[in-house]
Amino acid sequence: MTTALIFGSTGFIGSHLLDDLLDSPDYARVIAVARKPLPLSHPRLTVLIGDLATLPALAPQLVADDIFIALGTTRKHTPDEAEYYRIDHDYPVLAAKIAKANGAQAVFVVTAVGANAASRLFYVRTKGEVERDIIALDFAHTHIFRPSMIMGQRVEDRPGARLIIAAWHVLNPLLLGPADRYRGITGGEIARAMLHAARGDAPKLRVYHWKDMAALQREPDRQA
Length: 224
Known about the structure:
By secondary structure, this protein is an alpha/beta fold. The chain has helices at residues 12-23, 55-58, 81-101, 122-135, 159-171, 187-199, 210-217; strands spanning 3-7, 29-34, 45-49, 66-69, 106-110, 141-145, 150-151, 185-186, 205-208.
């Protein structure tokens, strides 16, 4: 009985991922950690209410084979850098650490294109430090997904984001060769790539950019 543990299930990528995990015959149980009850129920879904502060208390219940992490905030919602770092770095790393201690074999985490722990840019340095610290946990399999522009219709209406996404639709065909890693990709496509990656015979460490995630889209879905 394979169990999936997901963090970030109410976010733009995570909400797609949760639906895909529940539709998948690969997992007999899905555990979602969220700050508040989710607006859905499923016989294979267990929802645990928690956040970074309460995660240690939940540790005995965070037992799974695979852990999926799609946590993150924005500078608009979290302008304070220290709080931003806690959400984008400390929470994913602690979640992975607890799951690893409880026997999880594989971790699937969303970071960002250009992630680099040595960068002077706060955002890409934070994502790079997430990668560095989760890799150091030494899972049997570590999968890192580095999207560029995340496209698609969000519940929250952000006119500025809509304009940027519209511009990216124009730019996408022009991003060729090494630049194709900057192509936009939808939240649903990232989620499906993560699920397909979990089915494959992966090496110990794999990093996925746009081309790799696009290739995973072409794999057939497994039927129950």
